[in-house]
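Board notes (copied after class):
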Amino acid sequence: MSNKIRHSGIIDFIENGHIRVRILQTSACSHCSVANYCNASDKKVKYIDVYNDTDTSRRIGDEVEVVTSTSVGGKAVFLAFGVPFLILLITIFVVYHFTGNEPIAALSALFALIPYYYIVYLNRSRISRKISFELE
């Protein structure tokens, strides 16, 4: 099994080592013969930013493959879903333990996410260096 995550895409933007690649994300059933008639088949256009690319031969409209390791994908999933989930759970249990009031515990858990997302926003440049894609 490969330890790489790969997506094929088309270059939309190039400027000073920053390349934006457009990929078409499809659901698993999009290759079905009746996918055009079914609402379950889902297709979305996503954009992936690639930084520090020094290859000057790339042009807008070129087909490229965007690659990252599965460990980087795991870090991204943990930051996006794991940490907020833990913050929610811990806050709910702690606040409910001290107050005994479920609505207050639920609201407190939601408000506890505000500092987390603010910290993520402030550290976005550090995070983007650790969670990055490359062109192949």
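Comment from the instructor: The longest strand covers residues 4-15. The first helix runs from residue 70 to 99.
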